[in-house]
Design brief:
Layout (H helix, E strand, L loop, with lengths): L1 E3 L2 E3 L12 E2 L6 E4 L4 E4 L6 H12 L5 E2 L12
Parallel strand pairs: 1-6
Antiparallel strand pairs: 1-2, 3-4, 4-5
Length: about 80
């Protein structure tokens, strides 16, 4: 088991709908990915960036905290 941004993962999910980071209702077709702040479909297989994060987390032996940094590029006009 690994924890990514305080979300526990027991295995690598095959679809976004199986991922505990996806916030959605029971009958919704779309959900909100709390790791990358994007709206995702439940039926889509997980993106490469997620596969990479999961692979790195599970190959360390588990029980580790992996933190995904969120970079935002905002341009402010004053």
């Amino acid at each position: 088991m690994i924890a990514i941004n305080d979300i526990s993962f027991n295995e690598i999910p095959e679809f976004c709908g199986n991922c505990p980071a996806l916030l959605s209702g029971r009958y919704d077709k779309m959900g909100y990915c709390s790791l990358f702040e994007k709206q995702k479909s439940k039926c889509v297989s997980i993106p490469k960036r997620c596969k990479t994060i999961f692979a790195k987390g599970f190959e360390t032996g588990g029980n580790d905290l992996v933190i995904v940094s969120k970079h935002t590029n905002y341009e402010y006009e004053f």
